[in-house]
Design brief:
Layout: E1 2-7, E2 37-41, E3 46-49, H1 55-59, E4 69-71, H2 77-80, E5 95-99, H3 101-110, E6 126-130, E7 137-139, E8 142-151, E9 154-163, E10 174-176, H4 188-191, E11 196-200, H5 213-223, E12 227-231, H6 240-245, E13 251-253, E14 259-261
Parallel strand pairs: 3-4, 4-5, 5-6, 10-11, 11-12, 12-13
Antiparallel strand pairs: 1-2, 1-14, 2-3, 7-8, 8-9, 9-10
Bound molecules: zinc ion (3 copies).
Length: 262
């Protein structure tokens, strides 16, 4: 199983429009962060997690082949705003999109023309699946268990993804969590004992709906994955190289385009 970080930035991306701060003016390409999304691939299966407004730009650098499913974490624009741009992938068939009831409702409102009786030719062909926390499902050769985290007072989904060849409880799992502020104790069992944890770290200063860097590190240490990658960062966090030098070697900021193998 291979994961490609298509985007690792917060909702406005980095650099931030109009900003001349130390991070936004960095010459390092690791400090250019598109909106959060990831591609997960095995020999057989290709999944996209979230489809934000940078999707078109992000997917252009990837081979053009079928996407077997899109896992939506929540209904915010930075995670769903690129859905209309999946159109070219509909030549491989309907796109299966997985969302919780809140995100599903939002998608119906955002893209009513995709779900109308008489659809305009060429609109995205979406098969929308309603999913619920802790109810596992399969896409190709991947087992997926949605888990719930809190984005301030909004319950949203994280995902535990395991290849069929392994047990869901096994250490070959990947857990992807974005936009978390807190997590209920009962959810921890769905995160624990994973090989790779991906979790959000916005910045050093507190925020009402996102984890700070310190909160993310403390969560990562509690889970104890072999490797934790931090995502959904804002320009306030500082430069990639400097932040990573200050972090433990098994908990590091990810960057756009980075590929990790499990
Ligand atoms: Zn977000
Ligand atoms: Zn800035
Ligand atoms: Zn959000």
């Amino acid at each position: 199983m291979k994961l490609t970080f298509l985007g690792t930035g917060t909702s406005c991306g980095v650099p931030t429009i109009g900003c001349q701060c130390y991070t936004c003016t960095s010459p390092d390409s690791h400090d250019k962060r598109l909106r959060c999304s990831a591609l997960i691939e095995t020999e057989q299966t290709r999944l996209l997690i979230d489809c934000g407004p940078d999707f078109r730009q992000q997917i252009m650098s990837q081979p053009f082949r079928k996407i077997d499913g899109i896992l939506i974490t929540h209904a915010h624009y930075d995670h769903m705003g690129g859905m209309d741009d999946i159109r070219p992938y509909c030549q491989f068939g309907e796109i299966n999109v997985y969302a919780d009831p809140i995100a599903r409702k939002n998608m119906l409102e955002m893209l009513p023309y995709c779900f109308a009786e008489n659809r305009y030719p060429g609109v995205p062909a979406i098969q929308l699946h309603e999913i619920h926390k802790h109810e596992s499902f399969c896409i190709g050769d991947l087992d997926i268990i949605p888990l719930e985290v809190m984005h301030h007072d909004l319950p949203i989904l994280g995902y535990r993804i395991t290849p069929h060849t392994s047990q869901p409880s096994s250490h070959s799992s990947l857990v992807y969590i974005t936009d978390m502020k807190t997590i209920n104790e009962e959810e921890i069992q769905y995160v624990q004992a994973c090989d790779t944890l991906i979790v959000n770290a916005l910045r050093q200063q507190p925020h009402h709906s996102h984890q700070t860097l310190a909160e993310a590190v403390s969560f990562a240490q509690r889970i104890g994955a072999r490797k934790t990658w931090l995502i959904h960062s804002s320009h306030h966090i500082g430069r990639h190289a400097e932040v990573n030098a200050s972090l433990p070697s098994n908990i590091q900021m990810a960057y756009d385009g980075q590929v990790v193998s499990l």
